[in-house]
């Protein structure tokens, strides 16, 4: 069995991430970057990678982390602890938010009103991250989306015929509304397997538990399919990513955003998804 040297592996991981940041100019001098920090392996690697980039890039920028507690009993606290401890270790300020405080409900209280818990979870989490980043004056939000996540997201949109979502493909999402903070994905071309290896080799505290609701999602099914295919045909995931890069012209796909008539947050409709989700929750609560 081939041995893996920690120092060489770390250099490979961080060099790839740094090269991606430089190639796409994901971070510029003087910017404030808000890292979406769940405590899982991907977000924690993003935290360490941007700290590494900050120390070696030759210019200054500001880092801050944001964690969101969705309210999943017996699961979420482990991730929050990992987020707090890693942010403290790297001396990066951490802002903590929760569904309960910001939206009025914990996910455990409302998931049964939806076909999948991922529906309200994704909407509320993105909403809270964006509002918080906007309020603190962040120029960009750095997420931990890795190569596997990106392929899964694209195939999910493809299977649904949702071509508008194709505009979210790529290592950076440009600002299309003054209240919508642009997003960057430093792990965009880093395989999920290598993210896990990095955490294990370095003894990093991460949240390893799988979300109890994730097995019900379309993403879980696509992930299983891709992993099975990759095991039989190594290189499939990277080939798919390269194909997407060659055939997809995201410049021709644009979403025009308005402001939600109720809360004022950016949306492509009159009412944003977060407010629509709240309507469904309130309707179900009224029936009880």
UniProtKB/TrEMBL annotation:
One of its GO terms (cellular component) is cytosolic tRNA wobble base thiouridylase complex. InterPro entries: CTU1-like_ATP-bd, Ncs6/Tuc1/Ctu1, Rossmann-like_a/b/a_fold, TilS/TtcA_N, tRNA_thiolation_TtcA_Ctu1. GO terms for biological process: tRNA wobble position uridine thiolation. One of its GO terms (molecular function) is tRNA binding. Residues 32-222 form the tRNA(Ile)-lysidine/2-thiocytidine synthase N-terminal domain. The keyword Iron-sulfur does not apply. Keywords: ATP-binding, Nucleotide-binding, Transferase. It holds the Pfam family ATP_bind_3. The keyword DNA repair does not apply. CDD domains: CTU1-like. ATP binds at residues 36-38, 42, 68, 144, 149. NCBIfam families: TIGR00269 family protein. This is TIGR00269 family protein. The lineage of its organism: Archaea, Methanobacteriati, Methanobacteriota, Methanomada group, Methanobacteria.
């Amino acid at each position: 069995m081939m041995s893996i040297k920690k120092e060489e592996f770390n250099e490979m991981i961080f060099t790839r991430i740094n090269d991606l940041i430089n190639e796409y100019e994901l971070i510029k001098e003087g910017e404030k970057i808000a890292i979406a920090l769940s405590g899982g392996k991907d977000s924690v690697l993003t935290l360490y990678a941007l700290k590494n980039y900050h120390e070696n890039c030759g210019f200054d920028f500001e880092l801050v982390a944001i964690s969101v507690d969705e309210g999943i009993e017996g699961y979420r606290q482990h991730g929050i602890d990992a987020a707090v401890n890693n942010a403290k270790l790297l001396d990066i300020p951490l802002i903590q938010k929760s569904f309960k405080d910001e939206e009025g409900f914990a996910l455990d209280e409302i998931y049964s009103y939806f076909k999948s818990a991922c529906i309200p979870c994704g909407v509320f989490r993105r909403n809270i991250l964006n509002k918080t980043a906007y309020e603190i004056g962040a120029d960009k939000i750095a997420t931990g989306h890795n190569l596997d996540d990106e392929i899964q997201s694209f195939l999910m949109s493809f299977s649904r015929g949702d071509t508008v979502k194709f505009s979210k493909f790529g290592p950076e999402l440009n600002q299309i509304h003054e209240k919508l903070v642009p997003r960057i994905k430093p792990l965009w071309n880093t395989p999920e397997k290598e993210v896990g290896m990095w955490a294990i080799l370095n003894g990093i505290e991460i949240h390893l538990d799988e979300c109890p609701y994730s097995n019900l999602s379309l993403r879980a099914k696509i992930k299983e399919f891709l992993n099975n295919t990759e095991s039989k045909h190594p290189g499939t995931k990277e080939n798919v990513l390269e194909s997407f890069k060659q055939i997809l012209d995201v410049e021709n796909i644009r979403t025009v955003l308005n402001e939600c008539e109720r809360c004022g947050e950016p949306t492509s409709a009159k009412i944003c998804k977060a407010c629509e989700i709240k309507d469904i929750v309130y309707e179900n609560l009224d029936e009880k």
